[in-house]
# Entry
Amino acid sequence: MASPDVAKVASAPVIALPSTSRHGRVELKSWQPSYAPSLAASLNNRAIWLQLRDHVPSPYTLANAEWWIDYCSKSQNWPNVLTFDEHGIETIGAKRSCHFAIVTQNPTTGEDEAIGSIGLVHGSDVARRTAELGYWLAESHWGMGIMGEVVPMFMQWAWEAFPGLIRVHGEVYATNGRSASVLEKSEFEYEGSQIGAAWKDGRIGHMLTFACLRPGLGLSGLRIDRSVSERN
Ligand SMILES: CC(C)(COP(=O)(O)OP(=O)(O)OC[C@H]1O[C@@H](n2cnc3c(N)ncnc32)[C@H](O)[C@@H]1OP(=O)(O)O)[C@@H](O)C(=O)NCCC(=O)NCCS
# Structure
């Protein structure tokens, strides 16, 4: 069993929204075994599942929640922090967790409960300096502006935590206006659509790609003309 000190460190907020925020205390924390019931209760929702990939089970049970929390707690499942010096020489650093619970306090018990999730899935091979952003929020908390505040703060954390990252992208079903809106107000740029790229709930879906590029690299807004690739 973890010592009290370890448990305390693990439950410290990674990111806390400003206390002036209009929805009370919302924090990002490492996944804790105690969040399993609230995770299962929040994510066992078809409206959320319809916007996620099929590796998320539906219905979503307590056992599924326990599996996810266990997965997130094991450092062998975390990506390595990559760094690159001015000559492009790559160093593979320590592993670092990058999936967090979005937590608020239960008004009755005062206990933390998970109302959502946010995290990165890092690319491999030539895409190893990129990651895909994923998130969801309990339906009872939609439309309060929470994710519009969480995503920019998470991105600030991500650029610092993973200094080798160049690009973070989000893949959104074309029918998911809420998520597209969250990304656009978090400084992700719309890059384009992939027609027929998804098969979800027995239907053909179209995907929209949004990307956020590391500030200071001068890549934001860059457009590549197709004719350039034809000439080379
Ligand atoms: C997407 C999701 C995280 C949004 O969280 P949220 O906290 O409700 O988002 P916010 O309140 O910060 O912002 C939602 C925005 O969508 C807008 N919106 C609401 N309904 C909309 C609709 N039908 N079409 C387009 N935009 C819509 C809101 O006006 C708001 O934008 P604004 O702040 O500029 O007014 C949440 O709806 C969710 O978990 N959905 C299911 C899972 C999911 O889609 N995950 C992302 C997969 S890519």
